[in-house]
Every structure is written in C-alpha cells, then in structure tokens.
Design brief:
This protein is of the alpha/beta class. The protein has a single domain, classed as P-loop containing nucleotide triphosphate hydrolases (Rossmann fold). It contains 11 helices and 8 strands. The protein starts with a strand and ends with a helix. It binds adenosine-5'-diphosphate and magnesium ion (MG).
C-alpha cells in the first residue's frame, strides 16, 4: 500500500525542502518507487533533481489546466525516484482557482491517476498555510513537521495543527501527524538545546528520535543535482537523513498494521 507524506511548516528556512528531497532519495534507495511532488512555486525541490525545462508543462498546468498529472512527471538520475516539478507559475494557482468549489481537491483528484506507479509520495510545500498547502494535506495520509530549534520554533506550529484538525474533520479523515523532526540542530548553541527540550516536551511521543544536525554538505548537494547519499555518503547529513527515513518507514508500517 502506498503512503503520501506532506512536509509542511508555514515558516521558511526550516528545512522542509531539504527534508523532502533527502527522504525521497532515501526511500528510493530503500527500493521504494518514490514520487517527489514539488508544490512550492520556488521550485527548489524540483531543481534539486532535474534541470528546469521552461517548455515542459508543470504543476500549475496539472492542477489548474488540462495537462494530465502523469505528463509532468520526470525521471531523475536516482533509480526509483521521479519528480513532479513546479515552477514560479504555480504562484498563480490561488487566483486561477478562485471560486472553484473543488479548489481544495485538485491535487487529490488528479494525482490519483499516477498512484499505482508509486509506493511512496512525498510532497514539499511553500512557507504558507494557503490553498497549496491545504491541497497537499487533503491529498495526504501524513504530515511530517520539521522544526528548527529556535526561540520562535513553536510559533505557527499550532495554526498548522489546527488546519490539520479541520481537514481531518471534513475532507480527509485519514490525515494524521506522522511526527515532528528537529532540523538544523547546532549542538554548540545553547538556544538549540533549550528550544529542542521545549519542542520535545510539547510533542512527546510524536517526536522522531532522530535529530538533523547542521551540516554544510546538505546545503551543497542540491547544486549538483545529487542527494546527500551520493554526494557525501559519509557525512553527518547522510547519516541523519538515513536514520530519519528508517524511523519514518517504521512508523508508517506500524500504523498500517494497527
Ligand atoms: P525550507 O524549505 O523550509 O524553506 P530549506 O530546506 O530550503 O528550508 O532550508 C533552508 C536553507 O538551509 C537552505 O539553504 C538549505 O540548504 C539549508 N539547510 C537545510 N538543512 C540544513 C542542515 N541540516 N544543515 C545545513 N544547512 C541546511
Ligand atoms: Mg522549501
């Protein structure tokens, strides 16, 4: 059975894209046919694995136009990993769907036609709680919430979890919080330790044990269209994301059998 995981947090710079990209690569490495769906108009996840092609249709045309979702999907250099790319044009989605009763269901309705080709779908989202992120959550089984351990880390997290509850009530009762992961962790700073402790006590069992350390290799790998696992396999970044992927898969499996 396939799982769809949205990586979201309405803050920018908390490693949503880095987490989406490297989890997707780890899943593919573990033999799962994986689709990375880029729902951020900034397209950082897309360009991490495929060169931009201004001629090709992308996410906006698949969600608001009459291009089939299958026709925007592109293979990557990583075996088992495909990408559904976005472009800056996706920023027009909200305006284009204004007044459409099915605006929140566009992704769910259209992605279903490619589901059979994949075991796992990971969705990267923009730093907002607007229509795009709601589309991702309506189409997903799980939310994965990355938090950077800063003084303001929890600010906004509750708004996102309120949105999750609203979506659970009506369009998508299957949605749940898969877990919370601490990202960009710098053990040299006191604030990282204090904020991590606060985050852990706030989320309890919902925390992943793995914490993603700050590691410059994670910043570098997308520029070479590589995942951390091929770019710097022995780096702390590769070790951390490998461990997180393992935990994510364990939780998904555990939910499935319960
Ligand atoms: P978001 O998608 O939430 O805006 P990104 O994944 O783009 O966040 O990360 C923001 C910046 O931090 C990027 O430049 C990224 O390369 C960098 N980054 C993310 N995670 C790490 C990490 N663990 N160590 C070092 N740099 C990181
Ligand atoms: Mg991003």
């Amino acid at each position: 059975m396939r799982s769809t995981i949205t990586v979201a947090n309405q803050k920018g710079g908390v490693a949503k894209t880095t987490t989406s990209v490297n989890l997707a690569a780890a899943f593919a490495e573990a033999g799962r046919r994986t689709l990375l769906v880029d729902l951020d108009p900034q397209a950082n996840a897309s360009v991490s694995f495929v060169a931009p092609d201004p001629q090709a249709p992308s996410m906006l045309e698949a969600l608001a136009g009459d291009v089939r979702f299958a026709d925007i999907i592109r293979p990557t250099a990583i075996e088992g990993l495909s990408v559904a790319p976005s472009r800056i044009s996706l920023a027009k989605l909200e305006r284009q769907l204004l007044g459409d009763l099915d605006a929140h269901y566009r992704l769910r309705d259209r992605i279903q036609f490619v589901y059979d080709a994949f075991d796992a779908v990971i969705i990267d989202t923009p730093p907002t709680l607007g229509l795009i992120t709601v589309n991702a959550l309506v189409a997903s089984d799980y939310l994965l919430l990355p938090l950077q351990p800063s003084f303001y880390a929890l600010e906004g997290a509750d708004d996102l979890l309120d949105t999750v509850e609203q979506i659970q009530r009506r369009p998508n009762p299957d949605l749940s919080l898969l877990g919370v992961v601490i990202t960009l962790y710098d053990s040299r700073t006191r604030i990282a330790k204090d904020a991590s402790r606060r985050i852990r006590s706030h989320f309890g069992r919902r925390m992943f044990r793995t914490r993603i350390r700050r590691n410059v290799r994670l910043e570098e790998s997308p520029a070479y269209q590589e995942s951390i696992f091929s770019f710097a396999p022995r780096s702390a970044g590769a070790a951390d994301y490998r461990r997180l992927a393992k935990e994510v898969l364990e939780r998904v499996e555990a939910n499935r059998s319960s």
